[in-house]
Structures are given as structure tokens and as C-alpha cells.
Amino acid sequence: MSLAILGITDRLNMAEADEAQTVHRIVEATKKAFALRDKHITDPRHIDIDVQNLLDAEHLSTLAAQIDDQQAAPWGTGRGPGDTVWMGVMDSSGLAVSFIQSIYHEFGSGVVLPGTGITWQNRGAAFSLQPGHLLALEPGKQPFHTLNPAAARLKDGRTMVYGSMGGDGQPQTQAAIFTRHVIQGQPLQQAVSAPRWLLGRTWGQSSDSLKLEARIAPETLAQLRLLGHEVELLPDFSEVVGHAGAIVRHNNGMLEGAFDPRSNGSAAGF
To answer: For residues 146 and 135, is the Cβ–Cβ distance under 8 A?
Structure first.
């Protein structure tokens, strides 16, 4: 879904978008991408379409044309959060890894593999017990999950790995960082540290509003409300919007890293 969000926003002139337009367009693209996900994505052996067709240029253009710059579209519900960590690594040869690990809920399934201390993950919670449902529980079927570590090879030759924890927030945070740094030219650390948002639920809550960090510009907040977004404010540097990170390898071999001040992570070179 991260590719769908970026594919849609690629058609919306993000390079010249102000902060309110950037948030609005990415949020609206997120709604379109999540609708695709909820309609089609399940165990690959059970998908009845060619998933690559969801990223067809004509299809993405159609979705982009449906986004109204003057009005937020109705929004249903999200999948909710998980318990996840992202990590990116690059070495001097240019080998780059974007990695994500999740046990889904603080203690996963609550079951420990005897003799190991390893806690089993809880992704089976994503199954539905409704017969005929896209995510219906069946023998041998893989559960739905939100894990999507990101990596990009840019047209100018740079390589970028980036990502975040946060369930439904993962592709939203990825889109924010990629758009800010690659499309709008913000410095990497600024792109990670700048105020972010989450469309959907946070852990232990049922609200599916658009949640924004309170340090976002007042005029941006006012414009988003004017566009029809149901906005809630979060504390400054809230963990609700994820723990993001990124590494960029420049053409001269220089490595640049950024970490999220919302987390206890770091960017380090050895």
C-alpha cells in the first residue's frame, strides 16, 4: 500500500504543496490505498487478481483524479496498531537492508516457545471467523499483516532505506518521509522530525480520526478542519505517529542517517 500511496500522490504535484496540502493529499491517497487493501489483499495464494495491476499507471491516475483538494472524503475504520520495530542498515559496499520485526501486541500471542524464551507473534488475530470473508480463517492460510519495510533507488543514484513501526501508520509515515525528503527537498533529519499524523486508531482507542501532533502549524490545522477532516490533537513528538528512521547513501559514498526523536532509537556509524 505504500507504493499505491506514493503512486497516487506522484500525480498530485507534491513538490509545490504547502504543509496542509501535503497532509491532505497523503491522507486522501491513504484512504484510496487502504480501500484497495481491504478489497483485495489476503494470503497470496487466495488473491484472485494480479496485485501488480493495482499499481497500473492508468488505475493510479484514476484514483488520483478522484481526490478532491477542497474536501476530505468519508473515512471508515482502520486495522489498528501492532507491536513492531523497524531497523535499516547500510555498509561501505552499498549493501542496504530495510528490516521490520513484529509480534503484534505487547506480548504477542502470550505463548512462549518452551525452552527458548521466544514469544510467539499474534498475527492470527487478523483472521476473520466469518465464512467467505476475504481474511477468513482456513487451514494453512497466512494471516494479513501490515509489515512493509521500505527501500528506494532514486533517479539521481542515491539509495534510501526507511520505515517505521505503527500498524496502519507505517505506510503513512513512509509517505510523509519520502515526500518531504525526496519530493520536497527537506533535509533527511527534518523530514523525520517534522510534525506527523495518523489516520486511524491508536492502541487501546476506538477513534479513527485524523490525529496530528499539536506542534503542527495552526494555519495547517485550521485548513485541514476546513477541508472536512475530523482532527484530534496529540502531544508534541507523540509515539502514536510511529518511530521512524532512514538512511541515504549518496553518490559519493557518503552515508546519512536520521532517527526519530519520538523513540529511543538512534542513527550510528561504525
So the answer is: no
